[in-house]
Amino acid sequence: QPALRFLAHKYLKKSIQGFTVDRGQQQIAHSSIEDATVCLELLHLKLEHGPAFGAEGAKENILEGCQSAGVFKVCWVDRTEVLQRFVPPSCTTVPVETDEQAVGQAAERLVPGTFLWLQLHSLWATSSGAPGKTVQSVLRQLDQHVAQLYAAAPQHTAFLVLGGQEAVAGWTDEPSAEQVD
């Protein structure tokens, strides 16, 4: 498994974890904040470019590897077209049509020892011109979905909530001409 400093250099063109000298010995300096930031940046690249990103020459998807090694089970809750395109065959898939279905199905599957992938699509649908939606209504709904998942999650569950800035960059709370008519 490649070191974080190698991945940061290769994919982000960043130099991290510099060296310090302690009692005449050179040691790698770690900053947990820097390491966490780089991990999130690498995750963002992975999500942006898809599951195969960074797996050059890899024989197995990292999630498949974790699942087959018994580290955790993998479950994907998403739209059918996403599941068919990105999910390795050994992972559990739960096809859904709406964000409400996705949250309900995900909440049922939030159990210890499971890596659960869930993508909500309302932000993207609304940013592309869904009628009758405002920024506040979509974000309020998203907040309710996250609260529902949080309430269903077992203790010590880690959440990562991403909402692409591009999706909401052009939003306003002013109704469009089509919404007024």
Question: Topology, please?
Answer:
Elements: H1 4-12, E1 19-22, E2 25-28, H2 32-49, H3 62-68, E3 73-78, H4 80-86, E4 92-95, H5 99-109, E5 114-118, H6 122-127, H7 135-152, H8 165-168, H9 177-180
Report on this structure.
It is a single chain. Helix 5 (99-109) packs parallel to helix 7 (135-152). The longest helix has 18 residues, at 32-49. This protein has two domains: 1-59, no CATH class; 60-181, no CATH class. A hairpin with a 2-residue loop joins strand 1 (19-22) and strand 2 (25-28). The strands form two sheets. It has a three-stranded parallel sheet, sandwiched between helices. It has a two-stranded antiparallel sheet with strand order 1-2. 46% of the residues lie in helices and 13% in strands. The protein has nine helices and five strands. It is an alpha/beta fold and 181 residues long. The chain has helices at 4-12, 32-49, 62-68, 80-86, 99-109, 122-127, 135-152, 165-168, 177-180, and strands at 19-22, 25-28, 73-78, 92-95, 114-118.
Number of domains: 2
Taken from the alpha-carbon principal axes, the silhouette is globular
- Proportion of beta-strand residues: 5-15%
Taking the alpha carbons of the first and last residues, their distance comes to: 58 Å
Approximate helicity band: 40-55%
For the sheet with most strands, the description reads: 3 strands, parallel
GO molecular function, one term: nucleic acid binding
InterPro entries: RNaseH_sf
Organism: Eutreptiella gymnastica
Protein name: Exonuclease domain-containing protein
